Amino acid sequence: MRWAARCKEAFEARPGYGLFGIVQGSMYRELRHESAARLIETGFDGYAVGGLAIGEPQDVMFEVLDYTVPSLPQERPHYLMGVGKPGDIVGAVQRGIDMFDCVIPTRSGRTGQAFVRGGSLNLRNAKHTEDPRPLDAACSCRVCTHYSRAYLHHLIKAGEMLAGMLLTLHNLHYYQTLMAGMRDAIETGTLSNFVARFDS
Ligand SMILES: [Zn+2]
């Protein structure tokens, strides 16, 4: 908390920049509330939930969000650090989180994993060897409109760096589309339908 106060003092306000306070407190409700209350006293542009998504089960993460997010100012952005898989993100948005950062779309791309509607694909698997379908027939990204699963599998097997690049492109597009879909749903008041329809 002393460090947060020093940051606030040192921060120079300028357009396009904001300073976020980071709520700590592990899985202890009282500590999370105390952390949030003291950060709010100091006053920040936004509030991040830290010390989560470090290996705990999803239901524990959601439980911490259930009692932490309501203690943050509603008019300020809420940021969940280091999350996550698509299902984690959907559940966190449902609990009032606005912003995320995560390596999963790019790291997964580099290791042969593609996120698609209904789950994920491991393009290393031999079953894709002759599969002419795109990663996701409903996806409008450059990879899905130009390349087959078989070709992507071939690139991986050949040790081609292009495999990781193409899978990363698709995964980023998937994540952007997911977030855009949730923004639209929030605007039209249909987020609970979106969450109910979301598959994996
Ligand atoms: Zn795609």
What would your notes on this structure say?
The protein has 200 residues and is an alpha/beta fold. The chain folds into 2 domains: 101 residues, Aldolase class I (TIM Barrel, Alpha-Beta Barrel), CATH 3.20.20.70; 98 residues, no CATH class. Helices cover 49% and strands 12% of the residues. It has 9 helices and 6 strands, in the order H-E-H-E-H-E-H-E-H-E-E-H-H-H-H. It has a 4-stranded parallel sheet, covered by helices on one side. It has a two-stranded antiparallel sheet with strand order 5-6. Helix 3 links the parallel strand 2 and strand 3. Helix 5 runs antiparallel to helix 8 and helix 8 packs across helix 9. The longest helix has 27 residues. It is elongated, with a radius of gyration of 20 Å. The structure holds zinc ion (ZN). Zinc ion binds next to helix 6 and helix 8.
CATH superfamily of the largest domain: Aldolase class I
- Rg from C-alpha positions? 20 Å
Number of strands: 6
H/E topology pattern:
HEHEHEHEHEEHHHH
The dominant shape is elongated
Feature tags:
200 residues; alpha/beta; TIM Barrel; 2 domains; 4-stranded parallel beta sheet; two-stranded antiparallel sheet; 9 helices; 6 strands; 49% helix; 12% strand; binds zinc ion
Can you describe this structure in just a few lines?
The protein has 200 residues and is of the alpha/beta class. The chain has helices spanning 2-10, 29-42, 58-68, 86-94, 104-110, 142-146, 149-157, 161-187, 191-197; strands at 20-23, 46-49, 78-81, 99-101, 113-116, 119-122. The radius of gyration is 20 Å and the shape is elongated.
